[in-house]
Amino acid sequence: MRDIEKNDSFVLTRFIKGKDKSPQAIAKQLEHNESYRIHKRSNNVKLFMEIISFHKQDTPKLDNKTLEKIAKKYIAIRSELAISVATVHRDKKHTHLHILFSGVQYRTGKSIRLSKSEFKEKKLTIESFTRERYPQLKRSEIDHQKPSSLKKN
Description:
Blueprint (H helix, E strand, L loop, with lengths): L10 E4 L8 H12 L12 E7 L10 H16 L2 E8 L6 E10 L10 H18 L20
Antiparallel strand pairs: 1-3, 2-4, 3-4
Helix pairs in contact: 2-3
């Protein structure tokens, strides 16, 4: 949501009310939603920031319409009941989406935390969607195998 990228970007929101989409207005709504949290602890995760990154050679194939569809699908897969904000960054050699989720569902206070296996399932689902819908982005597929340095003998 940086000023420098506004001309070639978008901000996609879910459950953000009103016309003011400034970071301050969004933060205020996220804080209010956090007040609904059912189980409160000092170390609750209040926000999740997730990034979908694309290979630099796929960048020319990524227009805002395509990126918005991918972001909307990921939000629906990841947690369609959480407050979410998505935007695109083109500041590196590769295009990437930043997607922010509230730590709890909208006005229910239920945590949106995922286990590692649940998160992996969500990643595989969005990758499958992208592969089927946008086969031209084949360089952006994830290598899900552990690097050899991390494999157990």
